[in-house]
């Protein structure tokens, strides 16, 4: 490979080099002086300084990638929940200590400047955070990879509480400038919508073209994805929408300035805001526009690069594995067909063979209502050519179904990509199942339920397509960065190889029996709690006691995740303390920490948030109860908060109804940081428990087959209420207005929903959960035993590194190999 520009050396990797570069950035880019600079100036100069160390690696990676015939992974995702960038860039470039020292020399504090970064909240929850972990792992494992997504101007809303109720505020994360992105306006792509199609016959061959109605421009912004100390910097390319110049000009020429601005606004709306949904689709036209917009731009980008590098489109499957992160990017399948057939002139069958080989699909849910469908009416209006392509894909697929299974019209109707009822609609998960080589779930149980239930017909049709890849989390962010104390202890014990090979944590196993190691482990946990105390005090004005057990439930607010079950436990403890059934002096003292955002349109979730806050206020305000338990619910839980909260936790709450949580990844982060889990047999909990051992995990609740059997026989939640006096007391207390200033109506919808519907079987699992919590208390009293289990949780959960997940994807789905960066 030849570099055409002479290599520009990075600043020297020492304190002097760093300081010089920092002052340069402050002076020439920020245009200020040390004395005059605001905190934001100082942060931006720091970010740019760190970036400059990674820049030539980035260039080298990109140049090499262009020319190399290696297969690349292109991860298509509507969400990348990145978290703060500075810290990660510091550790990836080996600059952490140098920067701290250099800044100190200038009278600045690294910690203070790091806190100035606003995290890009370009995702809702698990799915988006997983994408961020995956691209980190791919870079660290030296895999040529690119992430493609959307640069939302407003990410996930900022949550505040007013009278305990969630209020959403816009997340204007770009306000102070974003030093981590580089715009590439010269690489913008025109993306079209609407219009109609025309078919002509040339030399006896039918050719269809799409005559779109309107277009927008997709402007790419590149983000660095640095590998950990390995010289590779991959790219995350996020697209932003702009009005086309032609559109502007035409209107300007008519002298209608206002109309031109409106057109601009209309176009830019496409990437204005992240849909604040998690696990439920929202049938909004704008959302389909977003999906097509980023997918079409990304495919165009990749395909043109392949062609520019001199490769043939017939070899596209050797060049790329496009991974579809859930159904949001699935419109890529008909789009690639359109590109290959309509634009590049390939025959349909040829194009279909290529397309199927290029794509693989990951499903992240089990809730039927979360599987995206798009009304045929909308799809035909917005993407008429794609609708035709989908029809043809469906026709040919259903022919194959008939050929394989005979003329079972019920089956054909069930498997059709087009649903007929309640309205004609495109089932995106089905399109994904048909148009890909592989389909994976995200934990063993989830993948099995996908095969047996959600996509069972497809599994019968093409069993070889189905596979599992259990999720993982990046140890760089969630251990090395988030938990410096534990990281140092681990490194002291077993060396630092674990940061890029987390299976090495198993070498910690013998230390679980070492009393001195356990003592230091506890000391670190205690230090992490102190950090959390400071954070909650400064950020939220919340006081917590670091000498209590920290019992944490953080995740999106959803009924299936069952924050309500946790609330029932809190209320039960409140009741027992108040009635004297337990003694506040001798019981185990706990702090219950919640963190959760509810989708703004999800009413019941918002009621549950209000209930948690109201119960919290009552508990914390009661002079007797608050001696033994306290509730903390900091608003606006995000990646940054997680990084302080997770390392401080003693107990991790993973209490979804079995069969509903696809995997969970928070569960992995907690276990890796030495929290014990109280959990159901659901998602990745199953694998966590198998690995850490029953004795180091508090299992409770129905299994998935048990829960399904009860549902089939006719679940009657009120029968649990009638038969269980403890449960009755708890529900009656909530219904009595105890937590709503005597107003019985406030939480009536929650109570009556539990008694009469309880879709996620909170009441059925109540007693089992209470029993598990008793076991937790008993065990916690024995701090030696507890910390032994905690150390074993760390030692036995190296499997949950996203590096391992990536290796599984590479082996089972992508078949791509590492390419070290030269030089
Ligand atoms: C989440 C799952 O709920 C979680 O169990 C899993 O760990 C995570 O994905 C990563 O695999 N699913 C979603 O976030 C999800 O389905 N979101 C889309 C529906 C919007």
From TrEMBL:
<keyword id="KW-0119">Carbohydrate metabolism</keyword>
<keyword id="KW-0663">Pyridoxal phosphate</keyword>
<dbReference type="GO" id="GO:0005737">
    <property type="term" value="C:cytoplasm"/>
</dbReference>
<dbReference type="GO" id="GO:0008184">
    <property type="term" value="F:glycogen phosphorylase activity"/>
</dbReference>
<comment type="function">
    <text>Allosteric enzyme that catalyzes the rate-limiting step in glycogen catabolism, the phosphorolytic cleavage of glycogen to produce glucose-1-phosphate, and plays a central role in maintaining cellular and organismal glucose homeostasis.</text>
</comment>
<keyword id="KW-0321">Glycogen metabolism</keyword>
<protein>
    <recommendedName>
        <fullName>Alpha-1,4 glucan phosphorylase</fullName>
        <ecNumber>2.4.1.1</ecNumber>
    </recommendedName>
</protein>
<dbReference type="InterPro" id="IPR011833">
    <property type="entry name" value="Glycg_phsphrylas"/>
</dbReference>
<keyword id="KW-0808">Transferase</keyword>
<comment type="function">
    <text>Phosphorylase is an important allosteric enzyme in carbohydrate metabolism. Enzymes from different sources differ in their regulatory mechanisms and in their natural substrates. However, all known phosphorylases share catalytic and structural properties.</text>
</comment>
<keyword id="KW-0597">Phosphoprotein</keyword>
<dbReference type="InterPro" id="IPR000811">
    <property type="entry name" value="Glyco_trans_35"/>
</dbReference>
<dbReference type="GO" id="GO:0030170">
    <property type="term" value="F:pyridoxal phosphate binding"/>
</dbReference>
<dbReference type="Pfam" id="PF00343">
    <property type="entry name" value="Phosphorylase"/>
</dbReference>
<comment type="similarity">
    <text>Belongs to the glycogen phosphorylase family.</text>
</comment>
<dbReference type="InterPro" id="IPR035090">
    <property type="entry name" value="Pyridoxal_P_attach_site"/>
</dbReference>
<dbReference type="GO" id="GO:0005980">
    <property type="term" value="P:glycogen catabolic process"/>
</dbReference>
<keyword id="KW-0328">Glycosyltransferase</keyword>
<feature type="modified residue" description="N6-(pyridoxal phosphate)lysine">
    <location>
        <position position="669"/>
    </location>
</feature>
């Amino acid at each position: 490979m030849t570099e055409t520009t002479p290599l520009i050396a990075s600043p020297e990797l020492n304190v002097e080099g760093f300081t010089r570069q920092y002052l340069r950035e402050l002076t020439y880019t920020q245009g200020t002086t040390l004395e005059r600079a605001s905190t934001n100036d100082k942060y931006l100069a720091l970010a740019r300084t760190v970036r400059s160390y990674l820049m030539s690696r980035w260039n080298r990676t990109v140049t090499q990638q262009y020319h190399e015939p290696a297969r690349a992974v292109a991860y298509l995702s509507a969400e990348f929940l990145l978290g703060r960038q500075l810290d990660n860039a510091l550790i990836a470039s080996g600059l952490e200590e140098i920067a701290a020292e250099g800044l100190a020399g200038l009278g600045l504090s690294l910690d203070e400047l790091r806190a100035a970064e606003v995290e890009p909240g370009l995702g809702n929850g698990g799915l988006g955070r997983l994408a961020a972990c995956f691209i980190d792992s791919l870079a660290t494992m030296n895999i040529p990879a690119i992430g493609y997504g959307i640069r939302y101007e407003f990410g996930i809303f900022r949550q505040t509480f007013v009278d305990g109720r969630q209020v959403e505020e816009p997340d204007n994360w770009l306000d102070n400038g974003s030093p981590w992105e580089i715009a590439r306006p010269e690489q913008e792509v025109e993306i079209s919508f609407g219009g109609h199609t025309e078919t002509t016959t040339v030399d006896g061959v039918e050719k269809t073209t799409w005559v779109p109605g309107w277009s927008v421009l997709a402007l790419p912004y590149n983000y660095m994805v640095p590998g950990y100390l390995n010289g590779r910097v991959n790219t995350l390319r996020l697209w932003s929408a702009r009005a086309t110049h032609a559109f502007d000009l035409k209107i300007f020429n008519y002298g209608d300035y206002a109309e031109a601005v409106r057109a601009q606004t209309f176009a830019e709306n496409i990437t204005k805001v992240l849909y604040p949904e998690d696990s439920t689709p929202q049938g909004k036209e704008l959302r389909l526009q977003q999906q097509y917009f980023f997918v079409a731009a990304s495919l165009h980008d990749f395909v043109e690069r392949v062609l520019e590098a001199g490769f043939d489109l017939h070899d596209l499957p050797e060049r790329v594995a496009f991974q579809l992160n859930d159904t949001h990017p699935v419109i890529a399948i008909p789009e690639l067909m359109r590109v290959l057939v309509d634009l590049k002139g390939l025959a349909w069958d040829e194009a279909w063979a290529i397309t199927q080989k290029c794509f693989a699909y990951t499903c992240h849910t089990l809730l039927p209502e979360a599987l995206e469908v798009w009304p045929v009416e909308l799809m035909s209006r917005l993407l008429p050519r794609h609708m035709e392509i989908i029809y043809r894909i469906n026709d040919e697929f259903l022919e194959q179904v008939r050929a394989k299974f005979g003329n079972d019209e019920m089956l054909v109707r069930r498997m059709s990509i087009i649903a007929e009822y309640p309205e004609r609609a495109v089932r995106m998960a089905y399109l994904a199942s048909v148009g890909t080589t592989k389909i994976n779930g995200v934990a063993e149980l989830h993948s099995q339920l996908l095969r047996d239930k959600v996509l069972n017909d497809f599994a019968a049709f093409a069993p070889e397509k189905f596979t599992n890849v259990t999720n993982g989390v990046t140890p760089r962010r969630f251990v090395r960065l988030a938990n410096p104390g534990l990281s140092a202890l681990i490194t002291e014990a077993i060396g630092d190889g674990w940061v890029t090979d987390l299976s090495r944590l198993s070498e910690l196993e013998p230390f679980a029996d070492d009393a001195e190691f356990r003592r230091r482990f506890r000391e670190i946990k205690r230090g992490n709690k102190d950090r959390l105390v400071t954070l909650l005090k400064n950020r939220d004005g919340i006081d917590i006691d670091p000498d209590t057990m920290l019992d944490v439930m953080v995740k999106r607010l959803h009924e299936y995740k069952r924050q309500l079950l946790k609330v029932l436990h809190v209320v039960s403890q409140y009741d027992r303390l108040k009635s004297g059934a337990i003694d506040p002096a001798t019981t185990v003292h706990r702090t219950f920490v919640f963190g959760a955002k509810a989708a703004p349109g999800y009413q019941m979730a918002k009621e549950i948030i209000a209930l948690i806050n109201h119960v919290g206020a009552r508990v914390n305000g009661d002079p007797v109860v608050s001696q033994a338990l306290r509730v903390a619910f900091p608003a606006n839980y995000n990646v940054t908060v997680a990084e302080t909260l997770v390392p401080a936790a003693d107990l991790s709450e993973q209490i979804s109804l079995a069969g509903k949580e696809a995997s969970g990844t928070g569960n992995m982060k907690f276990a890796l940081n030495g929290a014990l889990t109280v959990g159901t047999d659901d998602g990745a909990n199953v694998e966590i428990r198998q690995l850490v051992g029953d004795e180091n995990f508090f299992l409770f609740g129905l299994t998935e087959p048990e829960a399904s059997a009860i549902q089939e026989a006719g679940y009657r939640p009120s029968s649990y209420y009638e038969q269980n006096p403890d449960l009755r007391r708890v529900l009656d207390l909530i219904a009595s207005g105890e937590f709503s200033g005597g107003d019985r109506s406030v939480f009536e919808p929650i109570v009556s929903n539990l008694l009469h519907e309880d879709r996620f079987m909170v009441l059925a699992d109540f007693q089992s959960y209470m029993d598990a919590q008793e076991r937790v208390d008993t065990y916690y009293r024995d701090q030696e035993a507890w910390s032994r289990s905690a150390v074993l949780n760390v030692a036995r959960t190296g499997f949950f590194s996203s590096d391992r997940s990536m290796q599984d994807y590479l082996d089972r789905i992508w078949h791509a190999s590492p390419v070290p960066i030269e030089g």
